[in-house]
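ping. complex inputs:
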Amino acid sequence: EPEVTQTPSHQVTQMGQEVILRCVPISNHLYFYWYRQILGQKVEFLVSFYNNEISEKSEIFDDQFSVERPDGSNFTLKIRSTKLEDSAMYFCASQSGAGGIYGYTFGSGTRLTVV
Amino acid sequence: DAKTTQPTSMDCAEGRAANLPCNHSTISGNEYVYWYRQIHSQGPQYIIHGLKNNETNEMASLIITEDRKSSTLILPHATLRDTAVYYCIVRVSSNDYKLSFGAGTTVTVRA
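pong. complex structure:
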Protein backbone atom coordinates (compact mmCIF):
# COMPACT_ATOMS: atom_id res chain seq x y z
CA GLU A 1 0.00 0.00 0.00
CA PRO A 2 1.40 3.47 -0.89
CA GLU A 3 2.79 5.43 2.04
CA VAL A 4 3.63 8.99 2.98
CA THR A 5 7.23 8.98 4.21
CA GLN A 6 8.56 11.51 6.72
CA THR A 7 12.15 12.13 7.74
CA PRO A 8 13.67 12.35 10.21
CA SER A 9 11.52 10.46 12.70
CA HIS A 10 12.99 12.51 15.55
CA GLN A 11 14.78 15.86 15.44
CA VAL A 12 16.30 17.69 18.36
CA THR A 13 17.24 21.31 17.80
CA GLN A 14 18.35 24.31 19.81
CA MET A 15 15.98 27.20 20.28
CA GLY A 16 16.46 29.78 17.55
CA GLN A 17 17.77 27.30 15.00
CA GLU A 18 16.14 26.60 11.66
CA VAL A 19 14.71 23.15 11.01
CA ILE A 20 13.42 21.52 7.85
CA LEU A 21 11.03 18.60 8.11
CA ARG A 22 10.77 16.46 5.02
CA CYS A 23 7.96 14.47 3.53
CA VAL A 24 7.58 12.34 0.43
CA PRO A 25 3.86 12.24 -0.42
CA ILE A 26 2.21 9.47 -2.40
CA SER A 27 3.33 9.90 -5.99
CA ASN A 28 0.05 10.64 -7.78
CA HIS A 29 -1.42 12.80 -5.03
CA LEU A 30 -2.11 16.46 -5.68
CA TYR A 31 -2.92 17.97 -2.28
CA PHE A 32 -0.44 18.17 0.56
CA TYR A 33 -0.78 19.12 4.21
CA TRP A 34 1.08 19.65 7.42
CA TYR A 35 -0.46 19.09 10.83
CA ARG A 36 1.05 19.14 14.27
CA GLN A 37 0.22 17.60 17.62
CA ILE A 38 1.64 18.97 20.84
CA LEU A 39 2.01 16.19 23.41
CA GLY A 40 -1.36 15.38 24.97
CA GLN A 41 -3.27 17.79 22.73
CA LYS A 42 -5.36 17.61 19.57
CA VAL A 43 -4.06 17.22 16.05
CA GLU A 44 -4.00 20.74 14.58
CA PHE A 45 -4.05 21.80 10.94
CA LEU A 46 -1.15 23.99 9.84
CA VAL A 47 -1.26 24.40 6.08
CA SER A 48 -2.55 22.95 2.83
CA PHE A 49 -0.70 23.14 -0.49
CA TYR A 50 -1.96 22.62 -4.02
CA ASN A 51 -0.61 23.51 -7.45
CA ASN A 52 2.60 24.86 -5.93
CA GLU A 53 0.95 27.33 -3.64
CA ILE A 54 -0.61 27.51 -0.23
CA SER A 55 -4.37 26.89 -0.33
CA GLU A 56 -5.10 27.57 3.29
CA LYS A 57 -3.15 28.15 6.47
CA SER A 58 -4.07 28.30 10.12
CA GLU A 59 -3.24 31.00 12.66
CA ILE A 60 -0.41 28.81 13.89
CA PHE A 61 1.30 29.03 10.50
CA ASP A 62 2.91 32.45 10.96
CA ASP A 63 5.90 34.02 9.24
CA GLN A 64 8.26 31.60 10.96
CA PHE A 65 6.82 28.74 8.93
CA SER A 66 7.13 28.04 5.23
CA VAL A 67 6.42 25.13 2.91
CA GLU A 68 7.95 24.13 -0.36
CA ARG A 69 7.76 21.41 -2.96
CA PRO A 70 11.20 21.92 -4.48
CA ASP A 71 11.49 18.98 -6.86
CA GLY A 72 8.02 17.59 -7.52
CA SER A 73 8.40 14.77 -5.03
CA ASN A 74 9.50 16.17 -1.66
CA PHE A 75 7.30 18.44 0.43
CA THR A 76 9.05 20.34 3.20
CA LEU A 77 8.09 22.36 6.24
CA LYS A 78 10.64 24.92 7.41
CA ILE A 79 10.61 26.62 10.77
CA ARG A 80 12.99 29.57 10.60
CA SER A 81 13.74 30.22 14.24
CA THR A 82 12.41 27.51 16.50
CA LYS A 83 10.83 28.21 19.87
CA LEU A 84 10.30 25.85 22.78
CA GLU A 85 6.57 25.79 22.01
CA ASP A 86 7.26 24.39 18.54
CA SER A 87 8.06 21.06 20.18
CA ALA A 88 5.47 18.66 18.81
CA MET A 89 4.81 15.78 16.43
CA TYR A 90 4.53 17.07 12.89
CA PHE A 91 2.50 15.04 10.44
CA CYS A 92 2.52 15.34 6.67
CA ALA A 93 -0.48 14.14 4.68
CA SER A 94 -1.40 13.87 1.03
CA GLN A 95 -4.64 13.43 -0.84
CA SER A 96 -5.38 12.34 -4.37
CA GLY A 97 -8.24 14.69 -5.15
CA ALA A 98 -10.33 17.45 -3.71
CA GLY A 99 -13.60 16.76 -2.07
CA GLY A 100 -15.09 14.43 0.43
CA ILE A 101 -14.83 11.29 -1.62
CA TYR A 102 -11.08 11.06 -1.18
CA GLY A 103 -9.44 10.16 2.08
CA TYR A 104 -6.20 11.50 3.36
CA THR A 105 -3.05 9.48 3.98
CA PHE A 106 -0.85 10.61 6.85
CA GLY A 107 2.81 9.93 7.42
CA SER A 108 4.11 8.51 10.67
CA GLY A 109 5.35 11.91 11.81
CA THR A 110 8.49 13.73 12.91
CA ARG A 111 8.91 14.35 16.60
CA LEU A 112 10.50 17.81 16.95
CA THR A 113 12.08 18.62 20.29
CA VAL A 114 13.31 22.18 20.80
CA VAL A 115 15.73 22.57 23.71
CA ASP B 1 -17.51 22.29 9.34
CA ALA B 2 -20.20 20.86 11.60
CA LYS B 3 -19.13 20.06 15.12
CA THR B 4 -19.07 16.48 16.35
CA THR B 5 -19.61 15.05 19.82
CA GLN B 6 -18.05 11.78 20.89
CA PRO B 7 -17.73 10.03 24.25
CA THR B 8 -14.38 10.63 25.89
CA SER B 9 -13.56 6.98 26.35
CA MET B 10 -14.89 3.46 26.13
CA ASP B 11 -13.73 -0.05 26.84
CA CYS B 12 -14.33 -3.06 24.69
CA ALA B 13 -13.67 -6.77 25.14
CA GLU B 14 -11.35 -8.44 22.68
CA GLY B 15 -13.28 -10.34 20.01
CA ARG B 16 -16.48 -8.40 20.57
CA ALA B 17 -17.90 -5.68 18.37
CA ALA B 18 -17.06 -2.11 19.33
CA ASN B 19 -19.73 0.47 18.54
CA LEU B 20 -18.47 4.05 18.58
CA PRO B 21 -21.15 6.75 18.48
CA CYS B 22 -20.82 10.24 17.06
CA ASN B 23 -23.32 13.08 17.06
CA HIS B 24 -23.21 15.68 14.28
CA SER B 25 -26.61 17.31 14.57
CA THR B 26 -25.65 20.41 12.53
CA ILE B 27 -24.32 18.48 9.55
CA SER B 28 -25.24 19.96 6.19
CA GLY B 29 -26.10 18.21 2.96
CA ASN B 30 -22.65 18.32 1.36
CA GLU B 31 -20.67 17.22 4.40
CA TYR B 32 -19.19 13.76 4.64
CA VAL B 33 -18.60 11.84 7.86
CA TYR B 34 -15.03 10.63 8.19
CA TRP B 35 -13.53 8.32 10.79
CA TYR B 36 -9.85 8.23 11.58
CA ARG B 37 -7.90 6.64 14.37
CA GLN B 38 -4.54 7.36 15.98
CA ILE B 39 -2.62 4.55 17.59
CA HIS B 40 -0.32 5.91 20.27
CA SER B 41 1.57 8.83 18.65
CA GLN B 42 1.46 7.55 15.10
CA GLY B 43 -0.09 9.49 12.23
CA PRO B 44 -3.87 9.38 12.00
CA GLN B 45 -5.10 6.44 9.96
CA TYR B 46 -8.10 6.67 7.67
CA ILE B 47 -10.81 4.13 8.49
CA ILE B 48 -13.93 4.89 6.51
CA HIS B 49 -16.17 7.72 5.32
CA GLY B 50 -19.70 8.16 4.07
CA LEU B 51 -22.29 10.69 3.00
CA LYS B 52 -25.74 9.12 3.38
CA ASN B 53 -25.55 5.39 2.89
CA ASN B 54 -24.06 2.86 5.25
CA GLU B 55 -20.56 1.86 4.28
CA THR B 56 -18.40 -1.17 4.95
CA ASN B 57 -14.78 -1.92 4.24
CA GLU B 58 -12.20 -4.36 5.51
CA MET B 59 -11.67 -2.36 8.69
CA ALA B 60 -15.10 -1.26 9.82
CA SER B 61 -18.70 -0.43 9.07
CA LEU B 62 -20.24 3.03 9.20
CA ILE B 63 -23.91 3.39 10.00
CA ILE B 64 -25.39 6.85 9.34
CA THR B 65 -28.89 7.62 10.60
CA GLU B 66 -31.50 8.63 8.08
CA ASP B 67 -31.50 12.25 9.26
CA ARG B 68 -27.66 12.18 9.18
CA LYS B 69 -27.46 13.73 12.61
CA SER B 70 -25.50 10.86 14.08
CA SER B 71 -23.41 7.91 13.05
CA THR B 72 -21.85 4.79 14.52
CA LEU B 73 -18.52 3.24 13.66
CA ILE B 74 -18.53 -0.51 14.16
CA LEU B 75 -15.36 -2.52 14.59
CA PRO B 76 -16.79 -6.01 14.13
CA HIS B 77 -14.23 -8.06 16.08
CA ALA B 78 -12.05 -5.78 18.17
CA THR B 79 -8.44 -6.82 18.78
CA LEU B 80 -5.85 -5.43 21.16
CA ARG B 81 -4.31 -3.62 18.18
CA ASP B 82 -7.52 -1.60 17.79
CA THR B 83 -6.73 0.27 21.02
CA ALA B 84 -6.48 3.87 19.80
CA VAL B 85 -8.10 7.29 19.77
CA TYR B 86 -10.95 7.35 17.24
CA TYR B 87 -11.95 10.61 15.60
CA CYS B 88 -15.26 11.37 13.95
CA ILE B 89 -14.85 14.33 11.58
CA VAL B 90 -17.39 16.08 9.41
CA ARG B 91 -15.98 17.77 6.38
CA VAL B 92 -17.32 19.80 3.49
CA SER B 93 -16.87 17.97 0.24
CA SER B 94 -15.07 20.74 -1.63
CA ASN B 95 -13.02 23.89 -1.16
CA ASP B 96 -12.19 23.08 2.44
CA TYR B 97 -9.36 20.67 2.49
CA LYS B 98 -8.39 20.56 6.11
CA LEU B 99 -9.50 18.02 8.69
CA SER B 100 -10.53 19.44 12.06
CA PHE B 101 -9.72 16.94 14.79
CA GLY B 102 -11.48 17.00 18.12
CA ALA B 103 -10.50 15.08 21.21
CA GLY B 104 -11.95 11.82 19.88
CA THR B 105 -12.88 8.67 21.80
CA THR B 106 -10.12 6.73 23.50
CA VAL B 107 -10.97 3.08 22.92
CA THR B 108 -9.27 0.49 25.06
CA VAL B 109 -9.66 -3.12 23.99
CA ARG B 110 -9.17 -5.48 26.91
CA ALA B 111 -8.21 -9.15 26.75
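Chain A touches chain B through 30 residues (CB under 8 Å).
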